[in-house]
Amino acid sequence: MTYNIKNGGGDRLDAIGRVIAGEAPDVVAVQEMRGEPALGAATGMRQLVARSWRGQPVGLLVARHLRVIAAGRVARPFFHAAVWARLATPLGPLTVVGAHLYPYWGRARRAEAGWLAAFIKSQGESVLLADLNTLDPYSDHAVELATLPMPYRRRHLRRLGGGPDVGATALLARRGLVDVFRRCGTGQAWTVPTTRGGGAEFTELRLDYVLATPGVAGRFTGCCVVTGGEAESASDHYPLVARAA
After folding, report:
1. Cα–Cα distance for residue pair 159/173, rounded to 1 Å
2. Residue 143's pLDDT is what?
3. Cis peptide before 193, with omega less than 30 degrees from 0?
């Protein structure tokens, strides 16, 4: 699961914990962990946090039955941060990376995406769980721009030449990472905004992703955006969940 909880969660933390627990995930990447809220204690999971120099921390929640071989912060100057954990699985070691890319400028997001791709290349079999703050490179955004009630914000458009910015996601695709929702996703693709969690700056956008190296991607059997119930008000983002055999 990947879940942007919006500015540390505030008085929504109990609801966020219930949304997470309701899906019973093995690993959750959490973005915007301002104040480092104790979601691990709330969900019964091990909590790992990478602090941010300029933005907000990111974290990983790992189920207690999984052994963490090693963990740390991706050592690059991300605006927010990127956290990783090497997990022991029945099929061998797997690196899970949680990240949150720069919100305001596509060129900075592309640089951060390059750092993530280089780190993942050094790790072997990996999964990236992230709020990439970037549109996907596969959709027909011209159709979306013509039909959606609110146009894309400037932060999601190219500064030169206009048009939707897909630089970071396209770079990760070129580096071999597979978009799990595109491979086996069902239901709505957009992850912001929720109906009662704020997010007035968004139109319906797909900003949250599960990406994986090809060998891992082939094991996923489903991927969906979690909607309904407390997911509608716990954050301005919906969580995205992927399940594997």
Report:
1. 22
2. 60
3. yes
The closest of 8, 44, 84, 15 to 226, measured between CA atoms, is 15
d(CA 91, CA 98): 21
User: For residue 172, what are its two tokens?
Assistant: 């990760």
Tell me the pLDDT tens digit for each residue of 37-71.
999 999 999 999 999 989 999 999 999 999 999 99
Per DSSP, helices labelled H in the chain are 13-23, 39-43, 106-123, 141-147, 167-174, 180-184, 214-217
**Is 151 a residue whose pLDDT tops 70?**
no
- Number of H helices and E strands in the chain, helices first, is 7, 12
Say what the alpha-carbon torsion angle 46, 215, 107, 145 is, to the nearest 10 degrees. Answer: -100
- Count other Cβ atoms within 10 Å, centred on residue 187: 11
| 98, β-bridge pairs | 83, 129
Residue 146 pLDDT more than 90? no
